[in-house]
Amino acid sequence: MSDATQDGPVLAADGTPLKRSLARALRMQKLRALALIAPLLLFVLLTFIAPIADMLFRSVENQIVSATMPATVRELSDWDGTTGNPPGEEVFKALYFDLFLAAEAKEHTKLGTRLNYEKTGVSSLFRSSGRKLDDLGKDYQKAFKKIDKQLDEGEFWYTMMTGSGPASDALVTARKARFGDMTDESTKADIGFAPSQAITDLLPLTALAYTDFAVFTAIADGDTVAEEDPWEAVYVALAEDLATADVAAYTGPGADVLQAAQAGLDTIPVTSYTAFFEDIDKDWLDPEVWETVKMYSPKYTNGYFLNAVDLQKSPDGIEPRPENQQIYMKLFKRTMFMSLVITGSCILLGYPVAWILANLPMRTANLLMILVLLPFWTSLLVRTSAWKVMLQQQGVINDVLVWLGLVADDARLVMINNQFGTIVAMTHILLPFMILPLYSVMQTIPPTYLRAAKSLGATNWTAFWRVYFPQSVPGIGAGSILVFILSIGYYITPEIVGGTTGTFISNRIAYHISSSLNWGLAAALGTILLGVVLLLYYVYDKIVGIDNVKLG
Amino acid sequence: MADVSSDGAFVEFERVQKSYDGENLVVKDLNLALPKGEFLTMLGPSGSGKTTCLMMLAGFETATHGDIRLDGVSINNIPPHKRGIGMVFQNYALFPHMTVAENLSFPLEVRKMGKSEREEKVKRALDMVQMGAFGGRRPAQMSGGQQQRIALARALVFEAELVLMDEPLGALDKQLREHMQFEIKRIADNLGITVVYVTHDQTEALTMSDRVAVFDDGRIQQLAPPDKLYEEPENSFVAQFIGENNTLEGTVKEIANGKALVELDDGELIDCKPINVSKPGERTRVSIRPERVEYNKERLQEGVHTLKAEVMEFIYMGDIFRTRLKVAGNDEFVIKTRNAPDVERLTPGQQIEIGWLPEDCRALDA
């Protein structure tokens, strides 16, 4: 025991400060508690938090453009789209080499699909161009072959490009990284090739193109670089380099062939890159295509979010999408509206049930509770499909109404594949989530309150409305939050009975996840949905107070 | 004020019966009449039917048979909210979502009273229970005693002439309970209201009431003012239930001149006052209060029978001595003596002789 009169920190019996002593004593307990929850914590982190975070990240991620066409994006940064002219030759040159590698790696279609979200037609532009990129190089290749047969041989190319003297490892590393960015493949493996510094200085573009070829051959195809014939793009690059290179001063392997090639350069049918692309598809000269590429070239974009709220980027800033493409705000509003209606009908239907349950003797209440819980034990799909049977035009309800003569046989009610059907089915499915919290809150309200109110002169209604109802509000709150949040993200039921007018935003998210594969947009929609739920939760907390929510 | 019915009763139960399950009667043939301004306590063990009677009066239970009249008018078919009876519940039943002032204002609001009038009455009611400063509080922010006062004020605020209280002090600690007993009594007297008070605490019943109705087995066993109830219990249940009591069993030998001679089971004879016995040969239970037993020979009356007793235990309780004796085979016989200088302190094992005035010893039903 510490002496109360002493100065300084209170000490434990063994002289250590009491605080430290206590902390040590509690540490074991804390560690043990942590060890106990560790499996769950890991499970939740790995299977829940991490995937959600990853998915949310996709809503702003936009590496694909800069990863697939890094050089093009770089060149394009100087281009001013507002002039109405297509970009210059430099951009098309960069595009040719970027696209060539991308086409070999079959990445250009992915990029096309991505850009197609923003501008229709880009996808087919990329796909068709990818097939025709070889055409340009083929002419060059034939011409070079005529000059010297060796230029058509992979082994010679390998020797020539390897050269002599110090190797340019930096170029290999850079091209490996560029390839890795684009394909997500591991580029750690040795490709068995490195251009010499001398040849890199002499023929920079050729070295670059050949290194790309080497990286792709070694890593993607798993072949030996020396045994493979180079790509057409390499010949295009060679022609480009030879036009200016000082080959005469070069002494490395194949110098004589290069000199001959430079001498015969005039036999090569030089075409401008711009003309080549124009020949493939006139759309390449469309400034809007390039505008789109430029706009979506940064690594992170708000484009998905803008799209998710029916906006789009334009050179003049953010503007609404064309009327016929505006869909998401409408869906968000519909989702909110229908969720509210469902929550409201759950309150209306669930409140009396919960009240009866809470006021019956325990035994009877438990029996009835089974009826409330019964839907939980039935497959969601079965319940939803049952509503289909009930509500369809040849269904049970319509048959009965026709039999009763309330509805003409040729004017059967349409109650399914629309909002009505969705609301009916979802109210039924979510009703237990309203009844259970209501019931448990009502159970805690002693009947004496009602008696007290009546003894004070209140009529049954006043006693209920002024005394009982306010005390059951926490139950309504808890039930409403549950039902609303569940319904706002509901998927299966609207999918089955929703038709076109009863679908929710979640159905659209599912569509983008599994059909259109626009995961970025799906993630943005999901993020907005999550944000809306959190916002509502916050507002609810401010107005009602989350402490007032009771689940029992 | 409405006309008082012919026989002057303000509240009247006439041949009231109540059954919940159709097989057992919880209240059997209840007859009870209260004049205006009386403080009546229904006292009894749990399950004796006292709360059921109160609930029937309040209108939350309907009588299976019989008539309940308030101010001469049968209220059997009048719903609770039209009876105008104030009620204080066991757990106060203050509305938790309203402030104290709102709670008090509630009965006035449902009576469509104007705002200024309401405020004035609420203030007056709060002042009456000395809780004037608590109007803005919520029930959960107050102690049990304070809630109790508010519940009382709420039952009184709309000026009910009849107030029912269902074990209102049950949840309070002893000291506060005693204080509140006094308080309630004072307020009831000041306002001149009629109070029907239900409790199972006999001290509470004795200290507060004008009359006490002792309930057992669905019947009123005795209806009398506190002193009479204590000193002159009419049957052995009441004698046992009210206060501490010694019981000896025996047979009546003879009855003469308002005196009964009872032969106890071990053959000893004692003098008693016959209450529920009429002829010799009847079994009887003799009841005598601990403080009426005398063992000082000088004070014993001439000619009365005395009994031999052995002291089993002597307990010093400050103001009194409590001594347990073995008398006529019964070792639960207790006597109480005032702590005075001239009183002998007994020691366990001591053999003494005890006696009492014949009129203090009541021969009741067996």
Overview of the structural elements:
The complex is a heterodimer of chains A (552) and B (366). Chain A is an all-alpha fold. Chain A contains 25 helices and two strands. A two-stranded antiparallel ribbon of chain A has the order 1-2. The two termini of chain A are 44 Å apart. The mean pLDDT of chain A is 87. With 366 residues, chain B is α+β, with helices and mostly antiparallel strands. Chain B folds into two domains: 226 residues, 3-Layer(aba) Sandwich (Rossmann fold); 121 residues, Beta Barrel (OB fold (Dihydrolipoamide Acetyltransferase, E2P)), CATH 2.40.50. In chain B, the strands form four sheets. A six-stranded mixed sheet of chain B has the order 6-7-8-3-9-10, with helices on both faces. In chain B, helix 2 packs across helix 3, helix 2 packs parallel to helix 4 and helix 3 packs across helix 4. Chain B is elongated and about 75 Å long. The N terminus of chain B is likely disordered. Chains A and B meet through helix 21 and helix 22 of A and loops of B.
Number of helices of chain B: 8
The top level CATH class name of the largest domain in chain B = Alpha Beta
Total domains of chain B: 2
Which structural class do you get from the secondary structure elements of chain B?
alpha+beta
Q: Number of helical runs of chain A?
A: 25
Give the number of domains of chain A: 3
Give the oligomeric state of the chains in this entry, treating copies of one chain as homo and distinct chains as hetero. Answer: heterodimer
What percent of the residues of chain B sit in helical stretches (DSSP H or I)?
A: 10-25%
- Name the CATH superfamily assignment of the largest domain in chain B: P-loop containing nucleotide triphosphate hydrolases
